[in-house]
Amino acid sequence: MPAPRTLIWSLSDSRMARVSDWLLARGRLGRAPYAIGMVGTVAVAGGIIVGGVLTFYSFSNRFTHSAFEDIWILFVLLPALYVQAVLVIRRLHDMNCAGWNTAWLALMTVIGVISGGGFWSILALLMHAFLMLNPGRPGPNRFGPEPGPPRGSVPPGG
């Protein structure tokens, strides 16, 4: 008698459930974990920065800018930018592209920030939208197996 099919995929079973997967730029990443990771890092970093700045202002009777606030913002932004770079690299790997192409997206973002927005910021946002909407290459590629649930698995509740 064959064993019953119990292949059920959930977020807790996914490869992104391990912390090391958020820190290492190896392997591939699907669209949904990419979008969740990008929104999550922006929300967490933004919340910490806003909370920190409000705390600095509430403990001081001034509304001027200080170098300590810049250090606080860098302390929060650098890890968030690293995690986002890893997400972009792994998403590019899913499309069978080298992770070095992340440098172009980073350059567009930096130029957009320095120039105060405009064309380069819109181009960077379009690239992120492309990474979220474009499906990866089906099947294994040079960067590893296809991310997500195994083919033929039963979705939760299905």
Task: Quickly list its features.
single chain; 158 residues; mainly alpha; 57% helix; elongated; disordered N terminus
What does this structure look like?
The chain is mainly alpha-helical and 158 residues long. It has one domain. The protein is elongated, with a radius of gyration of 20 Å.
Distance between the termini: 23 Å
SSE order, one letter for each helix or strand: HHHHH
Main beta sheet strand tally, sense and closure: none
The tally of structural domains comes to 1
What is the SS-derived class? mainly alpha
Summarize the structure.
With 158 residues, the chain is mainly α. It has helices spanning 19-23, 31-59, 67-94, 102-114, 119-133.
Present the secondary structure layout:
Blueprint: H1 19-23, H2 31-59, H3 67-94, H4 102-114, H5 119-133
Helix pairs in contact: 2-3, 4-5
